[in-house]
């Protein structure tokens, strides 16, 4: 039997990354999952079974990223899909946020994504083939109070991905960006979303990732209806946007949440 294509997923010990690994595995991919906690990553690989390889991967460590790519390509085969999924999402008013935490969000959610892309892109270009999936966020389209740095980083991911998409036209290398609403993973622990903007599941996000690999537009919101709604809302005068946010209760995402649950999540960052 011919081995399937190889996909590498960052931040995949749990949450969205784990689900993407499961879905790609079911489609015949050989999957490499990377995360900071090697024991947890190996445990996830064992639970998924099949052609799954676990590696310790810190996306902010350039040397480790380069080594991981070399090891995967030399021992398993050429990488066909790379999913930049790893990220962090601390919440709370920016004025009360430590500068070091803000810097960590920029480093993990944007700077490392750019550097990881720089590491894998030459391999894709040399083969005139490859798909890069970047996990952004709906907050990159519609910034939220309490998520100032995160929203900024995710907006940067969208801009970077779109510019890169245009540069790579005709090369055989594709770039896609997925923009989910709040997701029911540990990253969203303790947050109760507004009634009109419910959280989505890792399964929903993973389905969008799989579709993006196969076909579809450059940017996909999850749920899909959210994209047109957010784009139209951003055309409204700022006071009207604020009035709508007050009525919908969007501030409860970044400025609300259960303090204990948010503190527990953020203590691990």
What does this structure look like?
This protein is an alpha/beta fold. It has one domain: NAD(P)-binding Rossmann-like Domain (Rossmann fold), CATH 3.40.50. The protein has helices at residues 15-26, 38-48, 62-75, 99-127, 148-167, 202-214, 226-233, 238-248, 251-254, 259-267, and strands at 6-10, 30-35, 52-56, 79-84, 130-135, 173-180, 219-222. A seven-stranded parallel sheet has the order 3-2-1-4-5-6-7, sandwiched between helices. Helix 1 packs across helix 6, helix 3 (62-75) runs parallel beside helix 4 and helix 4 packs parallel to helix 5. The longest helix has 29 residues, at 99-127. The chain starts with 5 loop residues before the first strand and ends with a helix. The mean pLDDT is 96.
Descriptive keywords:
single chain, 269 residues, alpha/beta, Rossmann fold, seven-stranded parallel β-sheet, 15% strand
* Portion in strands: 5-15%
How many strand segments?
7
At the first level of CATH, the class is: Alpha Beta
Query: Architecture in CATH?
Result: 3-Layer(aba) Sandwich
Integer-rounded radius of gyration: 18 Å
By secondary-structure content and strand pairing, the structural class works out as alpha/beta
Order of helices and strands: EHEHEHEHEHEHEHHHH
Number of helices: 10
* Average of the residue pLDDT scores: 96
CA-CA gap between termini: 42 Å
Helix content: 40-55%
Total domain count: 1
Per CATH, the superfamily is NAD(P)-binding Rossmann-like Domain
Quick synopsis:
The chain has helices at 15-26, 38-48, 62-75, 99-127, 148-167, 202-214, 226-233, 238-248, 251-254, 259-267; strands at residues 6-10, 30-35, 52-56, 79-84, 130-135, 173-180, 219-222. The chain is α/β, with parallel strands linked by helices.
């Amino acid at each position: 039997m011919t081995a399937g294509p190889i996909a590498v997923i960052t931040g995949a010990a749990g949450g969205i990354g784990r689900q993407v690994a499961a879905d790609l595995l079911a489609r015949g991919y050989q999957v490499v999952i990377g995360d900071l906690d090697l024991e947890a990553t190996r445990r996830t690989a064992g639970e998924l079974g099949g052609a799954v390889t676990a590696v310790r991967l810190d996306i902010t460590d350039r040397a480790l990223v380069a080594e991981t790519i070399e090891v995967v390509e030399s021992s398993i085969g050429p990488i066909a899909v790379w999913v930049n999924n790893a990220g962090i999402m601390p919440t709370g008013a920016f004025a009360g946020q430590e500068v070091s935490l803000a810097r960590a969000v920029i480093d993990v959610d944007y700077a490392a994504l750019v550097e990881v892309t720089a590491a894998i892109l030459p391999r894709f270009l040399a083969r005139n083939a490859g798909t890069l999936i970047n996990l952004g966020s709906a907050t990159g389209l519609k910034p939220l109070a309490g998520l100032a740095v995160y929203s900024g980083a995710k907006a940067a991911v969208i801009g970077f991905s779109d510019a890169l998409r245009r540069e790579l036209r005709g090369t055989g290398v594709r770039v896609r960006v997925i923009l989910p609403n709040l997701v029911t993973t540990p990253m969203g622990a303790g947050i109760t979303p507004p009634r009109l903007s419910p959280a989505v599941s890792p399964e929903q996000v993973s389905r969008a990732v799989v579709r993006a690999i196969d076909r579809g537009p450059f940017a996909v919101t999850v749920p899909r209806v959210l994209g047109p709604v957010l784009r139209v809302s951003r055309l409204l005068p700022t006071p009207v946007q604020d009035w709508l946010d007050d009525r919908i209760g969007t501030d409860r995402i970044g400025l609300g949440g259960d303090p204990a649950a948010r503190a527990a999540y953020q203590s691990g960052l």
